[in-house]
Amino acid sequence: MVASAEVRVARCGGSRINFIEPIITLDSRFLLCASGDAVHVYSTSTEERVHVLQGHVDLVTGLRLNSSNHLQVYSCSLDGTVKLWDFTDGILIKTYIVGHKIFSLYVSKFHEGTVFIILPMESSANTEAFQLVALHLPKTTGPEVEARDILSVLRDVSPIPKATSFGRGGEFVASASGLQLSVYFFRKQKTYRFSLKANDKKGARNRFTCVASHPNDDCIATGHEDGKIRLWRNFSQKKEYTYSTEHWHHSAVNALHFTPEGTELLSGGVESVLVLWRYGAGSKKDFVPRLGSAIEHISVSPDGSLYCTSHKDNKIVVMKSSRDISAIIQGLVKGETIRTDLLIDPRTKALVCNGKPGHLQFFSLRHDKQLYNLDIVQQEYIHEAGLHQCEVTKAAIDAQGSWLATVEERQENPEELDIILKLWAYDESTQSFHLNTSISMAHEGQISAMCFSGDAEATMLVTTGRDGHFKAWLLADHPDAQGEGASWSCDYVGSYHRREPTRCCFSADGSLLAVGFGEVVTVWSPSTWELLVTFSQPPGDIRDLCFGRLSCSKYLLGTTTKNLLCCWNLLTCSLEWSSTVDVILLQPDPLSENMAAFSRASGSTDLFVFKPSEPRPLFSQKAVCSGTVRRAVFAPREEVLEGCDESTQWLSCSRLYFLTEHMELMTFSTKSEEDQIIASSKQLVIDDSVAVTPFYLLLGKHRKSQRETQDSVSSHTAARIQLPQGSPAIRELLHTPAHVLPSASFLCNMFVNSLLISKSGVR
C-alpha cells in the first residue's frame, strides 16, 4: 500500500523552543516562542501554555510583534508564508504567501505595512547565499493573499536571525556575515561595509557571531568568536568609523541585546552567565550567574520589566529587571545524542529518555512540558572538554510503572570500564522514583540490552552483556517484598555456545524470553530456564527482536545486519515469512497488532507499518526524514481517534514518535486531526475568563433582565425599547475582540437600528 495523503510527518511536542529568540508582549503578560512548525504562547507568571498557534507546515523561523497592533504577531516559516496572528485568542488572521523559504523576519515602526525577511538568493550560483528584502503586505480581504512585492535591501547576509538588527527604530539595518559588517541607511539608500581580519596579532578570532543595535544612539554592538564585544560608532562614514572593545566571555559571544531605553547591553555565552554592561560607563557590569546552561538568545520586554534568556538545554528563563527569576519554561532536553531508548511511563504517559548529563527526563508530550528530572548518576557534572564522566546508557520501565532500571557507564581508558546497574522503585508519596538497589559490574563487559517481563505477579529484569552471558534479576523474596528491605539479586545466568548476546525481549505475558546470540535466536522459559527452541536465518547477526501482540502473539520477529526481516511462528517453530529489507528499527504498538519498521534508503529513512500475520504493509511512506532514525516509540492516545480509514487505522489507538539523527522529535499527523485543530482555533468563545468590563456588565445586565421578563412581555401593551433576541449587532459586539472590531462610526447605524421597534409590533 502506498502512502496516504491523509498522513503527514509533523514536528510535535518536544521541538526546540530555543531555536530563535522568544518575544515578550507589550504588557509583559505573555511570552511567545517558536516550537517546530507551531508558535507557543506562555504566561510569564504561571509558566503555563495558553495557546498553540498552528498553521505552518514547516519549521517556524521568525517571530515579531506587529508594530501597529500590540495584540498581533507575525510569524514566518520555511513553508514560504508569513502569517499574522491574534495571540490573545489564538486566531490566525491572515496568511501572506511569499513562495520562497523564509529564514528570518523583522519589523520596523518606521516601515508600516512592510516586513523584512531573509530569502535565498536564487540568481546566485552559491546555494548558501542569502539576502535581506523588504516585503510589502497587501491590504486585501480574505484569509490568504499572495505577497510578491519584494525589494532587495542587503545581499550576502547571514540567515541566522541574531546576525541582523535594526537601529534607531528602523533608520538603518546592520547585518554581519563571516568577517564583514554591513550597514544600510534607508534615507540615504546607501550601504557601508566594514571588514575584520580573521586573526589579529594576538591570535583573536574575529568572526562575527551576533549583532545588536542601540535603540536611540548610532551605536552597533557585535559579538565575536573570541568572546569580545565591539561597539561601533561613526559608521555613517566609511573612513571615519571607530569601535571600542569589551571583553569578559572566555568563548564565543552567543547573544547580545540592548534594553529598550538603551541603558544596558545584555550578553551571554557558554558560561551560563547573563552579563549586563552599563552603556556609556566604561567596563562596569553586573552578572546573573548559574543559569544552568549556555545562553543562546536574549530578549527584553518592550517596557524593560522582564529579561528572557534561551539556553542550550532547550530552556527559557524569564527574570525581572531586579534579577529575580519569575518563570522557567523547560522543553525536551536534547544533547548531541540520546543513548537510551525512548520509553513511555505507564503512569504519567510521559516520554522518558536522556536529559541533562547524568539524568533521565520525564516529558509530557501532551502538554509539551517537562514533568521532572531524575538524577541517576548523582554526581556533579563538570563542564570540561575531554573529561570522562558517567553517562546513562540504558533505561527500562516495567509495564506497571513501578520499577525503573538504569545503566550508567564511565570509561577512562579502553581497559577500564565502570558499569553500575541501578533499580529504582516508584514512591507514591513523592510521585517519583527512589534508588532501591545498586549493582556494580553487573556484567564483565558492556550491557548491550535489557528489558522487564510483562508478568505483573513476578517482575523480572533480564540484561545481556558483552561478556557472553544474559542474567535474570528478581526482587528478593521477603515477607515485606514491598518494603524498604526488598532488594534485587541475580536469579539466573545463561549463555549459548560462548556466543555474545546482543538483544533480548519478553513476550506480552512474560511466559517467553527471546535472546539473540549472533545469528541465532534462542527462546527460553523464564519459569524453568529451559531452552525451548532456536531459530537461525543466516547470514547476518540479529539486530532487533520483537514478539507479536494480541492476536499475533504467536509470532516472533527479528531483523539482521544483512538486510533481512524474518517472522517465525512459535506454534510450528518454523519460518512464517521473510523479506529482504534493511530494517534499522523495529517498534511494536503495545495496544494493537501493528509493527512499525524503519528502513534505510539512499540518504533518508522509509517507514512501513504491517501486522506479523501478513507481510503486506498497511501503510508505507518514503523518506519520512533525511538521514537515519535513531529511536522510536508508540505512545497511547488519551482518546481513540475516530473516523479513521484503512490507511490511518494504525494511528487510532497510539501515536508513533521518532527521533532523527538531527535530534528532532517527529510524529505522524492525520488530516482530520489538523482540520479539527484549525476549526477549533477559529472559534471565538466568550467564557468566564473574559475580563468583566463596564460595557460587558451593562449589556450583560440588560440581557439578563430581558430573559427574566421574556415570559411576561406578551401581557404588556405599552411599547418599550428592548434589544431584539439574537441581534447581530449585539452578538458582534460581545463575541468579537475589541481590537479587531470595525470603527465605532461603522457600527453606530447598525447598533441604533437594532434598538428600534418595527411598526408592526406596536398597536
TrEMBL record:
Keywords: Nucleus, Repeat, Ribosome biogenesis, rRNA processing, Transcription, WD repeat. GO terms for molecular function: RNA binding. Residues 342-663 form the WD repeat-containing protein 75 second beta-propeller domain. PROSITE patterns: WD_REPEATS_1, WD_REPEATS_2, WD_REPEATS_REGION. SMART domains: WD40 (SM00320). The keyword Transmembrane does not apply. Signal peptide: none annotated. The keyword Repeat applies. It is found in: Nucleus, Nucleolus. GO terms for biological process: positive regulation of rRNA processing; positive regulation of transcription by RNA polymerase I; rRNA processing. WD repeats lie at residues 53-95, 201-232, 246-277. One of its GO terms (cellular component) is small-subunit processome. This is WD repeat domain 75. It comes from Scleropages formosus (Asian bonytongue). The gene is WDR75.
